[in-house]
Amino acid sequence: MNYMLKDENAMYYECGYSCDNALYLRLGSEAFFITDSRYTIDASENVKNANVMINGDLYAEAVNLLKKNKIKKIIFDPKEWTVAGFEKMSTKSKVSFQPELDFSHKKRIIKSDEELKILSKAAKLGAKAFKALAKEFNKQGLGESEYKLTHRAKGILGDFGKYALSFEPIVAINKNAAKPHAMPSKSKLSLGDLLLVDAGLKYKRYCSDRTRTVYVDDNFSFNTKVKYKSKKIQKAYDTVLKAHDNAIIKAKSGMKAKKVDALTRDIIERAGFGKYYVHSTGHGVGLDIHEMPYISSKSETIIEDGMVYTVEPGIYIPNEFGIRIEDMVAMVDGKAKVL
Ligand code: GLY
Ligand code: MN
Q: Partners of 95 in the beta sheet?
């Protein structure tokens, strides 16, 4: 099979290295990692199972390789390529370029044992970081804005530079938490607030992802056992937790992803909050924070052992509050194991 990759995580998956100016070509049994001279040392030291080619014009080098190897057909994922980059290749070559959406994501949907170990460690480090975050927010979070809390969360989650983050953390108070991907605001944290934190870090380039929604008292933690003063919030919280637990307990290998989605959605709908559950149950996690399988009401994907995904139901009541509880699971021996 012949394929060409441009996305960094797709390239890393193939050869254990990536940088921001590179192309990866797999041509039958040979592979080529093309980059420019700024990366000569790093690429030669780290690229595995591919020939490192240094050329300031990546596309010219790639076209050359296609010609030299008499390639007739090559697969690419249109999601990875800019129109300009793709045109540079396609206009200078007679090769038939075959689009295949999510080519690398499809290859990566089942995690190897090694990847499962790394993802498990990433999730554990993520959980540990939430503990450190609770300590920090209890000590000096009250009276601070979401901006500052987000900034602090970034330092703590990444252990001050040791780990990259999976994405920009979400720290949202009260009604801002009703926006599933809230941007930080100047709202300040006070006792009695609802606080939602959605964050993750990368271990060996693999992402963790976790969300907790808590009641801020004078010694709160990011456990899932939470008591709110408001009956309405408590009902929404208990419903989300029940939906989250139900999917984790009942998800089985061999089930369609849409069935797993229904395991959270049915509970939230039955409790009368259906219209406030505005997203799907979860997404695969790996080198990318969002990858396959997608756990949505439309997904026909069959869940299999080795898949890793999030279970993250939520209820979002505009101008009032939002609740989300998220954990990562791996399918092991037919069942969902929380990482
Ligand atoms: N935790 C962020 C997201 O899944 O979109
Ligand atoms: Mn997520």
A: none
